[in-house]
Amino acid sequence: MKKPILLLVISFLFACHSDNQKVEEDLIKKTALENLEKYRESIVKYTEFLELHGADSIMAYKKEKKLKDIQGPLKGTIDDINESLEIEIKFEIVYRNRAKARIILGDYLGAYADINNAIELNPKIAESYSIRGVLRIQYGYYKSALADLEKALDLNPQLASAYINRSTLKRELKDFNGALSDIEKAIELEPQYAIAYGNRGFVKALLGDHANGLLDIEKSIELNPYLAGTYHLKGIIQYEIEDYQGSLLSQDRALELNPFLADAYFQKGKIKYVLGEIEESVELYNKAIELNPKFFNAYISRGYSWIKIENYQKALSDFNTAIELNPYQPKVYTLRGMARMFEFENMQEAITDFHKAIEFDPEIYETYKVKGMAYSFLSEDRLALNAFNKAIQLNPNSGELYYQRSSVKFNLGNITGACNDLAKAIELGHAEAIELCK
Predict the structure, then answer these.
(1) What does the pLDDT read at residue 66?
(2) DSSP labels, 116-169
(3) Cα(265)–Cα(396) distance, integer angstroms
(4) Which helix (H) or strand (E) holds 57?
(5) How far apart (Å, rounded) are the C-alpha atoms in residues 28 and 369?
(6) Contacts of 139-142 spanning 24+ positions with Cβ under 8 A
(7) N or C: less crowded end of the chain, CB within 10 Å?
(8) What distance in Å separates the CA atoms of residue 386 and residue 390, rounded to the nearest whole number?
(9) Helices in 173-295 by DSSP H: which ranges?
(10) CA–CA dist 202, 233 (Å, integer)
(11) Is 248 within 8 Å of 235 (Cβ atoms)?
(12) Cα–Cα distance measured from residue 217 to residue 195, given in angstroms and rounded to the nearest whole number
């Protein structure tokens, strides 16, 4: 299941109840959009404050103070010291709050710069490390994200949002039980914490319990109907149970509440791809990337859509960008190798990419499959056979793999083996094998 990375850590502040569902729905949407406007206005005010009071000057002052601390005790009157502390506190709060507002509006790079400044000014605020931790998860920097989240909990063991953000990291690392444990701790600390129930529902779905997962999602919505991220998670669960229309409605709802939620556009792109609406999927990935230019998975998925419509040059460009963003993910090397293989028939560079993917993760059968296809194209049948053997070892229920291997065995003169593989492909329902033997 594809998972969203950034889960918003700031709850909206309003609630409403109405006997008229239409009125209530309109009010929820209106209030959510008003809140987004308030975040935009707050960013303007924070920026004006920093410009008025000289943000560059305060950061230079901080560095000078650090240098003096290294050289010896900071000298000055008590009033001087108190004034410097007051300055740091004000600027730290402004940077931290602007970071939170920027997260809501999808400006993750701006948020990351702001939260770094906040930590530079005051390294004792637990929330700052929690925020930076979840931003680092967004870009796949898991080791440093864990260090930030552990620091947040060291500074404040009662910070529920830090447990939620650490659960997101554990979820990314497929430690689902560990993620649940952190979420339960957050709920213990804050029993009405809507985000926690949404996250718990999502983890339950990842563990295969979609029904109870959706119940937790509904509990989250009941506690706070303004959280776009909760509808986004609901849509992902619906996608997994192949309720594609329901999933689209949930993502649309998320975007009504927060038009800056890049993850919702990304998920809609995935749905459109599954439904065979490839050009529409590309447009939705475009929007996700426009909102978040470092959206690693969006480049991968858009590249895959380009492959589907045989625009291999654009696919290659997207995969190159993804590798620049995160050079340690195996799947993107596999996909780039496929683009090279299909467009340019550049089999040697494709095989180099497949080797790189296997170096990072030797358990992905698709990589061995396309590696076998590349070797087969080069008439390196024994190397192709080795690749298909490994692919079948990892996925013995793929009719396509037996079909591909049958051709290689035939070229090597193993007619019996080729026939056996062809029969297995037919048994597994592979269409081309069935057609061949009619």
Answers:
(1) 47
(2) HHHHHH-TT-HHHHHHHHHHHHHTT-HHHHHHHHHHHHHH-TT-HHHHHHHHHH
(3) 35
(4) helix 55-71
(5) 49
(6) 139/294, 139/296, 139/325, 139/326, 140/296, 140/326, 140/328, 140/329, 142/169, 142/172, 142/173
(7) C
(8) 6
(9) 176-189, 194-206, 210-223, 228-240, 244-257, 262-274, 278-291
(10) 6
(11) yes
(12) 9
- Across the chain, mean pLDDT equals 84
Contacts (Cβ under 8 Å, ≥6 apart) of 160: 185, 186, 189, 190, 193, 196
Closest CA to 372 of 389, 382, 387, 392: 387
pLDDT the model gives residue 194: 95
**54: DSSP letter:** T
The kind and range of the H/E element at 83 are helix 78-104
Number of H helices and E strands in the chain, helices first, is 23, 0
Measured over the CA atoms of residue 326, residue 327, residue 328 and residue 332, the dihedral's sign is: positive
Mean pLDDT for the stretch of residues 317-326: 94
Is 415 buried (19+), middle (13-18) or exposed (0-12) by CB count in 10 A? exposed
**CA distance readout (Å), 272 to 202, 282, 284, 318:** 22, 9, 9, 19
The predicted pLDDT at position 121 comes to 86
pLDDT, tens only, 182-197: 999 999 999 999 999 9
Nearest-angstrom CA–CA distance, 210 and 228: 20
Q: Evaluate if residue 22 carries a pLDDT over 60.
A: no
Q: Is 9 exposed, middle or buried (0-12, 13-18, 19+ CB in 10 A)?
A: buried
Residue 6 in this model has a pLDDT that exceeds 50: no
Q: Which two structure tokens, joined as six digits, stand for 44?
A: 């303007």
Residue 239 above 80 pLDDT? Answer: yes
Which residue's structure tokens are 């669960």? 237
Q: Half-sphere exposure of 424 toward its Cβ, with a 13 Å CA cutoff?
A: 18
Distance CA 118, CA 108 (A): 15
* Alpha-carbon gap, residue 376 to 194, rounded angstroms: 54
